[in-house]
Design a protein that fits this description.
The structure holds 3 protein chains of 3 kinds. Chain A contains 3 helices and 5 strands. By secondary structure, chain A is of the alpha+beta class. Chain A has one domain: Alpha-Beta Plaits, CATH 3.30.70.3270. In chain B, helix 3 runs antiparallel to helix 4, helix 4 runs antiparallel to helix 12 and helix 6 runs antiparallel to helix 10. Chain B is 47% helix and 14% strand. The model of chain B has no long low-confidence stretch (mean pLDDT 87). Chain B has a 3-stranded antiparallel β-sheet. A 3-stranded antiparallel β-sheet of chain B has the order 6-7-8. Chain B has a two-stranded antiparallel sheet with strand order 4-5. By secondary structure, chain B is α+β, with helices and mostly antiparallel strands. Chain C has a single domain, classed as NADH:ubiquinone oxidoreductase Nqo5 subunit (Beta Polymerase, domain 2). Helices cover 17% and strands 32% of the residues of chain C. In chain C, strand 3 and strand 4 form a beta hairpin. The longest helix of chain C is centred in the middle third of the chain and has 12 residues. The model of chain C has no long low-confidence stretch (mean pLDDT 81). Classes of the chains: A alpha+beta, B alpha+beta, C alpha/beta. Chains B and C meet through strand 6, strand 7, strand 8 and helix 11 of B and strand 2 and helix 2 of C.
Amino acid sequence: MAFFQMKKMILAWTFRTPVTTKYPFEPRKICPGSRGRLDIKISDCIFCSLCAKRCPTQALDVDKVNKKWHIDRLRCISCGYCVEVCPKKCLHLTGDHGIPTVTKDMETF
Amino acid sequence: MGNRTIIPFGPQHPVLPEPIHIDLIVEDEKVVEAVPSIGFIHRGLEKLVEKKDFIEYVYVAERICGICSFIHGQTYCQGIEEIMKIEVPVRAKYLRTIWGELSRIHSHLLWAGLMADGFGFESLFMHSWRVREHVLDIIEATTGGRVIFGSCKVGGARRDIPPEQMRWLLSELEVIEKEMRLIADIFLNDNSVKHRLCGVGVISKEDAIVLGAVGPTLRGSGVADDMRLLKYAAFGDLDFQPISRPEGDSYSRCAVRCAELFQSVDLIRQAAAKIPEGDIAVKVTGNPDGEFFSRVEQPRGEVVYYIKGNGTKNLTRFRARTPTFANVPPLVKMLAGCELADVPVLVLTIDPCISCTER
Amino acid sequence: MIEEQTIIAVMPETLAAETRKMKEQGYRLVQICVTRLGEELQLDYSFDLNRRFVNFRFRLPKTGARVPSVSGIYWCAFTYENEISDLFGVQVDGNVLDFKGTFYKTAMKHPFIQDAAPAPVPAPAKPGDQ
């Protein structure tokens, strides 16, 4: 029978700094391989609209006529399927997760 | 003999932020009967398969549950691969094994935290989740997602773990294992924890089988049944023996999970040592035509997918029997005859994931 | 091949007797599953003993499907039987814990035997949408 088995851990942590970060003031460390915000290098895009067709959440919209590429950030689930199918490899996922928003706007490139 | 009263438990309850409702019929402080009800957030994901491409449905399958997300995706992919007779590269099988075991560690640590919170041990809860954060960091670095891994696809894996990352993963695991030893020690040896768990909610071996219990609930009752013995993924090459304990009470379910934490670490080490070089995915052509019951061991127990394809890109039927769904009847049996104060602890010992039950 | 799966054809009338035999052999009820195949429903009762997977299968018409309950044999079957009666409208006779259609709180009755709604309109994601 052991009473208060946790004393060792509690004692050790009395002298340590917190593991949490003060988030909004101290930005989160970006992990290099993380699937974050979808980014496009629009100069390479050929507007084939393959990404929009394959997107599981229909977050993308490609305007072939006006050569515009739209994304609904709130719909995008950062799955990376579009990155895989893109023939010109102009899409990629960045490690950061973008900033919070209060409106549902389409972002246009 | 006291008066009979009905006390509602849930769908909103401090220890369990998930929508299960149980009507507890109590006599004084003793629960005599419990009537469960779920279905508050039924999402109809099984019906969605008629509209989604079978390749795309992996993303939906992964989102059935937030905690065992990877294994859901793996179960689905294995089912489709079995129907379409796709031979997955060996390296992809090993990667799936490693990620599956990582997700088991993170799920069991999450459970440990909730359990500690459930019996009122707040600081233990904080420390369990602090260690879990390390595991999530590994998962993010290797797959790109912290909760939804998104690294499993029909025909293999979508990402590789390069050798230097594997070495980093193993060195991190070492740290995590040390931390987990401290936490497991508290769960298994502390007097006050034992006082809450020993002898509470006993399910005998025979009952566990008849009630259809799965996972640690079944193994905690002395039945060494684990779907990993089916040798899916790379488990055929690894040295693996299921963990079971004969007591059948809350403590033994807790002990099974604690032991599985270290077993998973060991399995990852074995897999990392044996992983071969090679491709990580094969190209998938054609559509599934056939049926298969895909069974995989999740942190919470056996999950069963019934997948039926008809030769088009949309499946005819996709049915998921999640482990919690099978563990509800044992829970109801456990609750009958327990003390009212033990109800939250007992509900937590089956590691309920109601949201994945309501797929 | 991951595992062998035995599928045995049974009749709704003999289901209870066959299930009782499984219980006597020590099998565990894994799941009950209904699949809609056009105008028919296919019912699967799956059992497992030491990872030997056995499945009972029979078909019923879509409308007015009735099955005898096995919840008297395997008590845990009540969850599955409530599920099939709520989602597929299969009438289960003699369920020990019958929720009478309230196990799942769905917007429509028996959603899984309804025809699929037309394919989702690829939500028009147009610039300036709020």
